[in-house]
């Protein structure tokens, strides 16, 4: 299918792996996001769960489905998302990010649950090629935001840039019952993130420590936060932000999801 408009860039708060098998207000919002823009020719996914000390990109024709979790039902451990890869797109990403060294990974990684738990609802047929880009644990928030700027041209080439993580993610403060009220700091930080995204103010999101105690509690480690910054780095001047879904689950997991898409003429 010919691409007639730039692809949107999206960030999904993926929450529990069980969202793969469930239908709820978050998964319904993810499903509806498939209708945004033209159908992509491929997806570049940045997941919280590929957090390593390098920048790498999957470069295999058939990425494996990685079950990077423990203690969930057998149906989740058996879940398969057989989307094809796109080695040519991996090479295009390496070229766009040069001179930054980006290792092409032909067989080591694949698609982790941060990617497939969302795409299982957005593209349930697994018929859109998917490439994953790692987060570099040696690098800071500003680096990952700049990474998105370097990748933005892909949106004009039919590639949908998708980040999967959580703006608020503190497993140590998790409540183990579904009706648990959200922590006040989680509500405050998600609201601050939401407002900055809607106002197109990336600086406080890159320097999120300026938000003090709510930021420290919400982002105790950076890997779930950084995919959002890559997506925001790919923002275009004519993009508008639209919130897909939001809210705090299990007390300390933020489900904020948004799309960056061209504003209507």
Task: Describe, in plain words, how this protein is organized in 3D.
- The protein is α/β, with parallel strands linked by helices and 265 residues long.
- Helix content is 29%, strand content 20%.
- The chain contains 9 helices and 10 strands.
- α1 crosses α4 (113-122) and α5 packs parallel to α9.
- The radius of gyration is 17 Å and the shape is globular.
Sum up the structure in keywords.
9 helices, 10 strands, two-stranded parallel ribbon, alpha/beta, about 20% strand, single chain, about 260 residues, 6-stranded mixed beta sheet
The averaged pLDDT comes out at 95
Sheet of most strands: 6 strands, mixed
- Gap between N and C termini: 23 Å
Q: What would the principal axes of the Cα set say about the shape?
A: globular
Low-confidence stretches: none
The number of distinct helices, counting runs of at least 4 residues, comes to 9
Classify the helix fraction into a percent range.
Answer: 25-40%
Total count of strands: 10
The SS-based structural class is alpha/beta
Radius of gyration: 17 Å
Order of strands across the widest beta sheet? Answer: 5-2-6-1-10-7
Percent of residues in β-strands: 15-25%
Give the SSE string.
Answer: EHEEHHEHEHEHHHHEEEE
Question: What is the topology?
Answer:
Blueprint: E1 9-13, H1 25-32, E2 42-52, E3 56-58, H2 74-77, H3 87-97, E4 103-105, H4 113-122, E5 130-136, H5 141-151, E6 159-165, H6 184-198, H7 202-206, H8 213-218, H9 226-233, E7 239-245, E8 248-249, E9 253-254, E10 257-262
Parallel strand pairs: 1-6, 2-5, 2-6, 3-4
Antiparallel strand pairs: 1-10, 7-10, 8-9
Helix pairs in contact: 1-4, 5-9
């Amino acid at each position: 299918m010919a691409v007639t408009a730039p692809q949107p860039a999206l960030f999904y708060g993926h929450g529990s792996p069980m969202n793969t098998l469930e239908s709820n207000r978050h998964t319904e919002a993810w499903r509806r996001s498939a209708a945004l823009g033209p159908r992509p020719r491929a997806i570049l996914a940045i997941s919280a769960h590929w957090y390593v000390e390098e920048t790498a990109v999957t470069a295999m024709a058939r990425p494996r489905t990685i079950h990077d979790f423990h203690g969930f039902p057998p149906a989740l451990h058996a879940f398969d998302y057989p989307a094809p890869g796109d080695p040519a797109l991996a090479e295009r990403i390496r070229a766009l990010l040069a001179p930054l060294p980006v290792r092409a990974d032909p067989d080591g990684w694949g698609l982790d649950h941060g990617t497939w738990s969302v795409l299982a609802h957005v593209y349930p047929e697994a018929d859109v090629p998917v490439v994953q880009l790692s987060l570099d644990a040696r690098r800071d928030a500003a680096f990952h935001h700049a990474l998105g700027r370097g990748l933005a041209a892909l949106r004009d080439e039919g590639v949908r840039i998708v980040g999967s993580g959580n703006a608020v993610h503190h497993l140590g403060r998790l409540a183990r019952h579904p009706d648990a009220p959200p922590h006040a700091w989680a509500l405050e930080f998600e609201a601050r993130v939401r407002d900055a995204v809607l106002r197109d103010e990336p600086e406080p999101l890159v320097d999120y420590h300026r938000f003090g105690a709510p930021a420290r509690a919400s982002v105790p480690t950076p890997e779930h936060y950084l995919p959002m910054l890559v997506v925001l780095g790919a923002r275009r001047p004519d993009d508008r932000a639209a919130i897909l879904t939001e809210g705090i689950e299990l007390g300390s997991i933020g489900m904020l999801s948004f799309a960056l898409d061209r504003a209507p003429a």
